[in-house]
Design brief:
- This protein has helices at about 75-80, 100-115, 125-135, 150-160, 170-185, 195-200, 205-210, 230-245, 265-270, 295-305, 315-330, 335-350, 370-375, 390-395, and strands spanning about 1-5, 10, 25-30, 70-75, 85-90, 115-120, 140-145, 165-170, 190, 220-225, 250-260, 310-315, 360-365.
- The chain folds into 3 domains: about 1-30, no CATH class; about 70-95 and about 200-375, Rossmann fold (3-Layer(aba) Sandwich); about 100-195, Rossmann fold (3-Layer(aba) Sandwich).
- The strands form 3 sheets. Strands 4-5-13-10-11-12 form a 6-stranded mixed beta sheet, with helices on both faces. Strands 8-7-6-9 form a 4-stranded parallel beta sheet, with helices on both faces. A 3-stranded antiparallel beta sheet has the order 2-1-3.
- By secondary structure, it is α/β, with parallel strands linked by helices.
- The longest helix is centred in the N-terminal third of the chain and has 15 residues, at about 100-115.
- It has 14 helices and 13 strands.
- The termini are far apart.
- Helix 2 (about 100-115) crosses helix 6, helix 7 packs across helix 8 and helix 8 crosses helix 10.
- The structure holds pyridoxal-5'-phosphate and zinc ion.
- Zinc ion (ZN) binds near residues 4, 9, 22, 23 and 25.
Length: about 400
């Protein structure tokens, strides 16, 4: 069953519907978990190991073996900050971001519904993922990207997997508005995160974190927030497993935004349950360069209900954190993902996070998604002949 998060109106699972017909609010799937957690044991570690908890037709699954991502204990960085730190590495998904979790479920639903064309507006990763899954499913794929603001790796993926790519003169919010209008005219099936089936896939990040910790909850989960679907999905996942009795505690959901694109943090600091859109969002972390997040209600509910928090970080703090994670722990992430680490550092400094807390930072996308930003942050390699004497001298002088 699909239910409106604001007025509680109910819709059938097979209705193609993105927002509530009665009040215009966002929708969610309501699913009861009536299995024992033991049934997940011994299955291959993809998100479909949780298939009983994902409300789609198993016979229609379109998958690239997403989920089951690394869960790295980060003692060096954790000790430096005085917390017990784990990093959930979502860049290890098939196309290099957590979007694959949402897309495998969304594309499976598309097959169930029998649609022929899928579409999305994207800051980059959604389009990279959609293009790959549409290719796998054999469907036509249309993507709208904000002109000039998409990281190189993501653009390469969307084009290479055969999506029809339109470069929209406008920002993400404008591209999404146009794409949504076309979806409502039924020209295509919309696979942005306003589609509640996307979040049914992404909630498995929450499932896996609890499982990865040996069926315990961390004190806190920290992640970057853009369109605000992922924080909502992870909260849904941990809540479902908590309600099923698989764990005894829930994490504080902590959403980090870039200073130039922070409608959710602004709303949180005022105690509001809706955002006031940011007109011209700007940040180097293009994946979270979003001014009018569609899942603002769900995300703010998640933060308030979990006794969580929201804070902003500057682009400089993001780039510093990106380098810190890469050089202390060997984990390469794109700038938006590093916002979670930058936020962790800031909230420890502010005393919002207590020393000794068990924290999971979700790092959402791979370093190679945005090679230009990575190269710009480094000094150029020394050019030198392959002469042993010269090379030896250079090495010894370091
Ligand atoms: C999509 C994305 C985000 C933002 O997630 P939302 O669900 O839009 O809040 C953050 N980081 C990366 C790498 C992403 O691709
Ligand atoms: Zn409603």
């Amino acid at each position: 069953m699909i239910r409106c998060v604001s007025c509680g109106a109910e819709y059938d699972d097979d209705e193609v519907i993105y927002t509530c017909e009665k009040c215009g609010s966002v929708l969610e799937l309501v699913s009861d978990i009536d299995v024992s957690k033991d049934i997940f044991d011994g299955r291959r570690d993809t998100l479909w190991k949780f298939k009983e908890c994902i409300p789609v037709d198993e016979s229609k699954i379109v998958s690239l073996d997403e989920g089951g991502t690394p869960f790295c204990k980060c003692d060096k960085l954790g000790d430096e900050l005085g917390v017990n730190l784990y990093v959930k590495v979502e860049g290890s998904n098939p196309t290099g971001s957590f979007k694959d979790r949402g897309m495998t479920v969304g594309m499976t639903k598309a097959m169930e519904l029998g649609v022929s064309t899928v579409g999305c507006a994207s800051t980059g990763n959604t389009s990279a993922s959609l293009a790959a899954y549409a290719a796998r499913a054999g469907l036509r794929c249309i993507v709208f990207l904000p002109s000039g603001k998409v990281a190189l790796g993501k653009l390469a993926q969307a084009m290479f997997h055969g999506a029809e790519v339109m470069s929209i003169n406008g920002n993400f919010d404008e591209a999404l508005e146009a794409m949504t209008a076309l979806a409502l005219e039924k020209h295509l099936y919309l696979l942005n995160s306003i589609n509640p089936y996307r979040l049914e896939g992404q909630k498995t990040i929450g499932y896996e974190i609890l499982r990865d910790l040996g069926w315990q909850s961390p004190d806190r989960i920290i992640l970057p927030v853009g369109n605000a679907g992922n924080i909502s999905a992870i909260w849904k996942g941990v809540s479902e497993f908590y309600n099923a009795g698989f764990v005894k505690d829930l994490p504080m959901m902590t959403g980090i935004q870039a200073e130039g694109a922070c409608p959710v943090t602004n709303a949180f600091k005022k105690g509001e349950r809706r955002v006031v859109p940011v007109e011209n969002p700007e940040t180097i972390a293009t994946a979270i360069r979003i001014g009018a997040p569609v899942s603002d209600i769900k995300a703010l509910n998640a933060i308030y209900d979990s006794n969580g928090y929201s804070e902003t970080v500057t682009d400089e703090e993001i780039l510093d954190a990106q380098k810190l994670l890469a050089r202390t722990e060997g984990i390469g992430v794109e700038p938006a993902s590093a916002a979670s680490i930058a936020g962790l550092k800031k909230l420890v400094d502010q005393g919002v996070i207590d020393k000794g807390e068990t924290i999971t930072c979700v790092v959402t996308g791979h370093l190679l998604k945005d090679p230009n930003t990575a190269i710009d942050a480094c000094t150029k390699p020394t050019e030198v002949d392959a002469d042993i004497d010269t090379l030896r001298k250079l090495l010894m002088n370091k």
